[in-house]
């Protein structure tokens, strides 16, 4: 009888140790999960901030491309020496220059 009791006691101890190990593992996994969720939240916020910055930069790219095109047109007119003979009136040239000046003053 003593050996059965001792065997049963060892079995209960093994089960308790296994339960304790599982509980410790559960706590460790919960801790890791919490850290991962915190990291994910931070990364998500960073992603949205970068996405907003990219949107601003894309808008600025469109604006600057338009300005560059206007300035290139002005340079082409000025290099042609005679904007009227190139099919561009003095009024149109003045308008181009004014819009380029206005566009550069917006920045």
Automatic annotation (TrEMBL):
<keyword id="KW-0805">Transcription regulation</keyword>
<dbReference type="GO" id="GO:0005634">
    <property type="term" value="C:nucleus"/>
</dbReference>
<keyword id="KW-0804">Transcription</keyword>
<dbReference type="GO" id="GO:0045893">
    <property type="term" value="P:positive regulation of DNA-templated transcription"/>
</dbReference>
<keyword id="KW-0175">Coiled coil</keyword>
<dbReference type="Pfam" id="PF00170">
    <property type="entry name" value="bZIP_1"/>
</dbReference>
<dbReference type="GO" id="GO:0046982">
    <property type="term" value="F:protein heterodimerization activity"/>
</dbReference>
<keyword id="KW-0539">Nucleus</keyword>
<dbReference type="GO" id="GO:0003700">
    <property type="term" value="F:DNA-binding transcription factor activity"/>
</dbReference>
<dbReference type="InterPro" id="IPR046347">
    <property type="entry name" value="bZIP_sf"/>
</dbReference>
<protein>
    <submittedName>
        <fullName>Ocs element-binding factor 1</fullName>
    </submittedName>
</protein>
<feature type="coiled-coil region">
    <location>
        <begin position="12"/>
        <end position="81"/>
    </location>
</feature>
<dbReference type="InterPro" id="IPR045314">
    <property type="entry name" value="bZIP_plant_GBF1"/>
</dbReference>
<keyword id="KW-0238">DNA-binding</keyword>
<dbReference type="InterPro" id="IPR004827">
    <property type="entry name" value="bZIP"/>
</dbReference>
<feature type="domain" description="BZIP">
    <location>
        <begin position="1"/>
        <end position="44"/>
    </location>
</feature>
<dbReference type="GO" id="GO:0000976">
    <property type="term" value="F:transcription cis-regulatory region binding"/>
</dbReference>
